[in-house]
Design a protein that fits this description.
- 6% of the residues lie in helices and 47% in strands.
- It has 3 helices and 28 strands.
- It has helices spanning 258-269, 272-276, 279-282; strands at 14-17, 23-27, 32-36, 42-46, 51-56, 62-67, 78-83, 88-94, 101-104, 108-112, 116-121, 127-132, 142-143, 151-155, 161-167, 172-180, 184-189, 195-200, 205-210, 215-221, 229-234, 243-248, 253-257, 290-293, 303-313, 323-332, 336-344, 351-359.
- β10 (108-112) and β11 (116-121) form a beta hairpin.
Length: 371
Amino acid sequence: MANQSSSSASVILCASFNQDNSCFAIGTRDGFRIFDSNTGRVFYERAIGAFSIVEMLYSSSLLAIVGAGQQPSLSPRRLCLFNTMTGTALRELNFLTSILAVRVNRKRLVVVLQEKTYIYDLNSLAILDTVDTVPNAKGLCAFSPSLDGCYLALPASTTKGSVLVYNVMELHSHCEIDAHRSPLAAIVLSSNGMYIATASEQGTLIRVHLVSQATKSYSFRRGTYPSTIYSLSFGPSTELPDILIATSSSGSIHVFFLGFILDQRSKRSSSLLGSMIPNSINDAFEPGYHHVLHNANSAGVKSYATIRSIDKVASTSISQVATSKACISIITSNGYFQEYSLSFDHLNEPLWSLEREFNLLTVVPDNVNNS
């Protein structure tokens, strides 16, 4: 890890990857920038004031942006649909209270306020539904952009870790999951909408539920002492993701191996004793499923992580088996981008390597809009 000065803490007001993780956007007090995830190149920026939300629609020219309220023209109650090709606003939507989160896919636009969430048709911007929610001051939500499994997850309680899962395409509540005893701190849906992972404000347990049945599939113990979970991310997959990662206020990156558990469950169920013990008891908090990269960032620095890809790497030796290699990207609130590669095999042995690290604010744009 490079020397990341704490004096530049929270220079990043927001950070988000697009739906296929090929690009990411950051909002700062000066404007916003869009980067190519593979090269780190800035290919678009606007320096017109502070932004608290910048959301992309894949690699298209459409952005959903919300001002941070530090300039009169950039109200936190106004959502602007912005065209990067023309540099102009396509449409603006105004609300009575501040916009706390925005999510988008090719069919839907979701706007999260403190006590209401609005579902729009993206093409016509007609309001399709309004979801009344419990007070959600942090705008906590999760969204799966797949049209076949498009779900929105929102807190369902202010006193415990319950989650409301809403079907965004069919416009109805799908289920409510009681995941934790204390209020939620982080939620993520797998890209296909099959699984949801949650962490509470205690931050000691990570739980994974199967969305279709609202049943708990996995429980992981992150640690013994409380810690704030800043982000959760599933690996990309058409079925069960191989891994789940979490970043926390301790500065560590936690990796939980879901595929390894599934393999062990399969082996266990073939034995008489294993078939008699419920999975929820048999593998609860198994340390072999959890690995930690300590001191990846400074403690207390907020970070947002995503697993951009997982590739199978064939072995060159007959005696060895293939390994998997995950590409993990992290954006920190003090303005840094990190990219780690994580290799692991069937024995669940991880190998970390820091591939790239750079300051997001000092990257010099090349032939981009500097309006």
